[in-house]
Design goal:
This protein is of the alpha/beta class and 251 residues long. Helix content is 45%, strand content 23%. The longest helix has 23 residues, at 177-199. The radius of gyration is 17 Å and the shape is globular. Mean pLDDT is 89; it is low at 1-5.
Length: 251
């Protein structure tokens, strides 16, 4: 039997002990939490808002539904879901990182979003919810930071209602070589410098760039979702494949 302490996993381009990664990722997001929204706008030139809006539009959300926003961070998706599910619906913003959860809760409360949103500190690999609880589950720009992605996809499947859908919005692999080269230059030469200037932290944004490259490509992630039990799995490439939105159903 393999000793789990001897197993290693990627943390960006580094290999670390599997039991270490969660703490290392936590340190990254503790560092960037307060500047997270500003950096998202600067890094993506505001395009992240269009990616998230497309995710909401593809979710099929309706009034009265129960939604789980995993790795919900500062609450961009939760805010939109809250407005759409209405007073009879419920949105749970879940994040493993308490600093991110605090920033998201404060932002949404300042915008008057209180009644139908709950906040839960949770590990995506071991979601603390009953089977068949949610109509919709989203995870936006969070799956690549999970230690055991397959286990997380299975955990999400367990808590999704029959007929419900999972949407995974994540950085992926550009489909055109020239775009890929330009994206690599930007990620490794510009992004860490932006992180230093705006958030005072180049290392965290170096990790984020590396974590994107280590994340499964579009077809691999589709296969992982199918292995976890999802059906009718499809994906859309956004901005030339820099980001992909995967969708799968539980039947």
């Amino acid at each position: 039997m393999k000793d789990s302490k001897s197993e290693t996993i990627d943390f960006g381009y580094k290999q670390v002990g599997k039991e270490e990664k969660q703490g290392l990722v936590a340190n990254v997001f503790n560092s960037v939490a307060k500047k997270y929204d500003v950096m998202n706008d600067v890094m993506s030139f505001g395009i992240h808002r269009l990616w998230k809006r497309y995710t909401i539009d593809c979710s099929g959300v309706r009034a009265g539904m129960k939604v789980l926003d995993i790795a919900g961070g500062t609450g961009d998706l939760t805010e939109q879901f809250s407005r759409r599910v209405g007073p009879k619906g419920e949105v749970v913003l879940a994040d493993i990182n308490q600093a991110m959860l605090d920033v998201g809760r404060d932002k949404l409360r300042n915008r008057g979003i209180v009644a139908n949103v709950d906040y839960v500190q949770a590990n995506a690999e071991e979601l603390p919810f009953a089977n068949d609880t949610f109509d919709i589950i989203t995870i936006a720009f969070g799956l690549r930071n999970v230690t055991d992605k397959q286990k997380a996809l299975e955990s999400m499947f367990r808590v999704l209602k029959p007929g419900g859908r999972l949407l995974v919005l994540e950085f992926s692999k550009p489909v055109q070589p020239m775009l890929s080269q330009a994206y690599d230059f930007y990620s490794f030469n510009v992004l860490p410098k932006m992180g230093q200037m705006i958030a005072g932290d180049a290392d965290s944004y170096q990790y984020l760039a590396e974590s994107i490259r280590m994340h499964p490509d579009q077809e691999t992630l589709k296969g992982m979702m199918e292995q976890a039990g999802y059906e009718n799995v499809t994906y859309d490439n956004l901005t030339g494949g820099i980001v992909a939105l995967h969708r799968g159903f539980k039947f």
